[in-house]
Specification:
Protein name: Mammalian cell entry protein
Pfam families: MlaD
Number of domains: 4
Shape: rod-shaped
Structural class: alpha/beta
Strand content: 15-25%
Keywords: Membrane, Transmembrane, Transmembrane helix
Strand order of the largest sheet: 1-4-3-2-6-5-7
InterPro entries: Mce/MlaD, MlaD_Phospholipid_Transporter
Length: 299
């Protein structure tokens, strides 16, 4: 059988189409001769998910998105067909979520449940959802930021007014002067500390002498018979008390001297008589003293 030129061209064209088809699928990440398991995921919103987007489980790529179909008969759900590695076991109760990063890359993550007994069979449908991630958090902050903008504007206006007040510049000038004074004080303190450092050895020597004297004094105190001394003090106090009692008593000699008016009057009269006698002696000494230059003649 001879192939005409037209048949050869047609075969080459068909072969080129097949190579192009499988090459595009390979570049999209789809296996050409695949025996992967097919599952379905139901979403309310796929947020930019498209065919050939990767699917990850615990950060590891386990498959790709095969087809996306809009379910017009079931409340507008979007059914995503995914092909997963046949060795992957999906526990029952697992779910899927769509993640998008700041660069706009979209991927699907499988959230595997902890159910070692039951599994999702190929062809079953898995529940899917959205994970807004960082962009969702930023979007949630936008209303709060919008509410804060008027307050921020008011605060900035007050700050500008405050900074424009001449008193601020004057205060800053005063702060500069205070800083200079602090520097001067610090230098003086350094000089004082240097002088103190020089005086410390002599002070320590004197302190050692004082401690030595203190130790001697303490030793002397320790050698004192405190009990005997206190006994003598008690005896002295008892004698003083007895003497005081005798002074306060009217029966003793000292009591008569202090409290008997007759003794006082007698002593007073005696002193007056002695005074009169001395006056008479001074006035008439010859009555009391006989004095002769040549001596007394014998009879």
């Amino acid at each position: 059988m001879k192939f005409t030129k037209e048949i050869k061209i047609a075969l080459v064209a068909i072969l080129g189409i097949l190579v192009l088809f499988f090459g595009l699928n390979f570049l999209k990440g789809m296996t050409i001769f695949s025996n992967d398991n097919t599952y379905f995921v139901s979403f309310k919103d796929i947020s930019g998910l498209s065919s050939s987007n990767p699917i990850y489980a615990d950060g590891y790529k386990v498959g790709v998105v095969k087809h996306i179909n809009y379910d017009y008969d079931n409340n507008g759900n979007i059914i995503v067909q995914i092909d997963l590695n046949k060795d992957l076991r999906i526990p029952k109760g697992s779910s899927a979520e769509i993640n998008s990063d700041l660069m706009g890359n979209v991927k699907m993550n499988l959230l595997l449940a902890n159910n070692p007994r039951e599994r999702v069979n190929p062809g079953d449908t898995i529940v899917g959802g959205m994970n807004s991630g960082l962009m969702g958090k930023v979007a949630a902050l936008v209303p709060t930021v919008e509410k804060m903008l008027p307050k921020m504007d008011s605060i900035l206006t007050r700050v500008n007014t405050l900074l424009g007040d001449p008193a601020i510049a004057h205060s800053l000038h005063n702060i500069e002067g205070i800083t200079n004074n602090l520097n001067t004080t610090s230098q003086q303190l350094n000089i004082l500390a240097t002088g103190l450092n020089k005086s410390v050895p002599s002070l320590m020597h004197k302190t050692d002498g004082i401690l030595t004297n203190t130790n001697k004094f303490t030793s002397n105190l320790a050698s004192v018979d405190v009990a005997g001394t206190m006994a003598q003090v008690d005896e002295t106090i008892a004698n003083l008390k007895s003497f005081t009692n005798q002074l306060n008593s009217k029966d003793g000699t000292l009591g008569h001297l202090m409290y008997d008016p007759a003794l006082y009057n007698n002593m007073n009269r005696t002193m007056i008589s002695a005074d009169s006698l001395l006056i008479n002696v001074r006035q008439h000494p010859k009555r009391y003293v006989h004095f002769s230059v040549f001596g007394k003649k014998d009879k």
